[in-house]
Amino acid sequence: MSKLHVQDLTQGSITQKLLVFALPYLFANLIQALYGAVDMIVVGWFDSAAGISAVSIGSQVMQILTSMVAGLTMGSTILIAQYSGARRQEETVRTISTTLTLFALLAVFFTGLLFFFAPTVLSLLQTPTEALSAALSYVRICSCGTLFIFGYNAISAILRGLGDSKNPLKFVAIACVCNIVLDIALVGGVKMGAAGAALATILSQGISMLLAIFFLQKNNFIFTFSLKNFRIYPDEAKRLIRLGLPVSLQETMVSLSFLVINAIVNSLGVVASAAVGICAKFESFAMLPAGAFSSAIASMSAQNMGAQKPQRAKKCMWTGIAFAFLCSLFFFFWVQILPQSALALFKADEQVTAAGIEYLRTFSFDFMFVSFYFCMNGFLNGCGCTTFTMANGVAATFLVRIPLAFLLTSFLPKELSLYGIGAAAPVATLFSIALCLFYLKSGKWNTCEISS
User: Fold this and answer.
1) At residue 196, does pLDDT exceed 80?
2) Taking phi first (over 0 means left), then psi (-120 to 50 degrees means alpha), and beta for anything else, what does residue 191 get?
3) DSSP letters for 87-153
4) Looking at the domain assignment, is residue 1 inside a domain?
5) Does 325 fall in a domain?
6) pLDDT for the residue numbered 36
7) Is-contact 212 152, C-beta < 8 A?
8) Is pLDDT at 135 greater than 70 in this prediction?
9) Residue 263 burial by CB count (10 A; 0-12/13-18/19+): exposed, middle or buried?
10) Is residue 77 part of a domain?
11) Most-buried pick from 37, 155, 347, 409 (CB within 10 A)?
12) What is the rounded CA–CA span in Å between residue 370 and residue 348?
């Protein structure tokens, strides 16, 4: 395993270990966000506001699937990290086998589900008429790459559970380069619009997944990718589901809530839809540090909980919060001082830019708040307290953010509606932080059932 960067995260300096482990996460997330933004940027250069809206809405639909996968893979990362910290290699291999087999079966199921129900979903989202046809093409083409989405995320989750955050960075970098080249060729050259962006996405993901498997095979990975090794071990499957399903449900419900928010925005017209769609891409960049440290904290905490070092795990959380918050200040002040520059990259027209600035003025407060919430969430997930994190996230979203966004858009003048929709996000995050602090103070995080 000479080219595999497996680390023991239970020893040494917490600050050094966290930074070394989190930075590849950060760069991988940066590339992943760029990967998603490229579609929007290229379509913005070569297509209309309707094309931008189609990619934005289609991406939101696909994000439901990606979020569900991310939640399930988090269960795999946590379980593998706990086994790794406890030095239980046999259970680690069984978990890898179970993860890959289960994900392959789920990929086949969701491919058909997403393809056939795409028109219904887009209708429920009140997709603008001008963007409907292009959005449908985008979603259906992307659905054909579901196996690649599941496969790449599963392999990356397994490696990160083992303490390797560097190779997943390489895999996503390959996908991003391929996506940029194919986007320019298919959208700019062949003029395929949103359909071309979708095709570029699935081809890039497929190339990345196949290269990842080839790389692991050539470097003596602890699991061999042969048909006889793909099987589901019932005990490990139960543990994976127990840990991963709550996270998956949370991520999926939060993504569904974004679609509800998107439906509210779509009712304001194609300009508002395009503006919020562009802002969502910028937001994904602004929240990268918090997301990266959250993921790194989850793996580190899981290894340390497996090694019976709960206080070291908790120190990882506070260290990550400090780093994430400092990073978030940069994005907050950027949007407050030069908001138009955040939208300039997407070549949006004056109306779309003005609408986007309104939304970002209030939403940007969330950049700072999620530094605390994401890192606390990562820690609690690593401890195995995924049921609490699910309940917290769902409550904040459906009891605070969506009702508040609806009320503010209903009672505020139309010209202030985007300010109201933006403000709902930081209020919901503050609610979640308060619940996390209460849970941490209760000490229940140290009694969550893990891999035993």
Assistant:
1) yes
2) left
3) T-HHHHHHHHHHHHHHHHHHHHHHHHHHHHHHHHHHHHTT--HHHHHHHHHHHHHHHTTHHHHHHHH
4) no
5) yes
6) 65
7) yes
8) yes
9) middle
10) yes
11) 155
12) 27
CB atoms within 10 A of CB 353: 19
Distance CA 60, CA 280 (A): 10
DSSP secondary structure string, 184-200? IIIIIIS--HHHHHHHH
Residue 97 placed within a domain:
yes
Total domains, the chain: 1
- Measure the CA angle with vertex 204, ends 327 and 254; round to 5°: 50
Placement of tokens 């503050």 in the chain: 430
- Averaged pLDDT for residues 9-37: 81
Report yes or no: 81 and 273 within 8 Å, Cβ to Cβ. no
Over the chain, what is the mean pLDDT?
84
Q: Which helix (H) or strand (E) holds 214?
A: helix 193-218
Instruction: Answer with the residue of higher pLDDT: 256 or 300.
Output: 300
Q: Which amino acid, residue 290?
A: A
Using alpha carbons, select from 2, 138, 7, 117 the residue that is nearest to residue 60.
138
Query: Average pLDDT, stretch 17-43?
Result: 79
Q: With a threshold of 0.85, does the pTM exceed it? A: no
What the block records as the tokens of 165 is 């955050």
- Residue range of the domain that includes 302: 14-443
The DSSP call for residue 223 is: S
- Please, where are the H alpha helices in 267-385? 270-286, 288-306, 310-337, 339-344, 350-363, 365-382
How do residues 362-388 score in pLDDT, each as one tens digit? 888 999 999 999 999 999 988 888 889
> What confidence tens digit (pLDDT) does each residue in 382-407 have?
888 888 999 998 899 889 988 988 88
Q: pLDDT by residue (tens digit) across 330-358?
A: 999 998 888 888 777 666 677 888 888 88
Whose structure tokens read 């931008």?
52
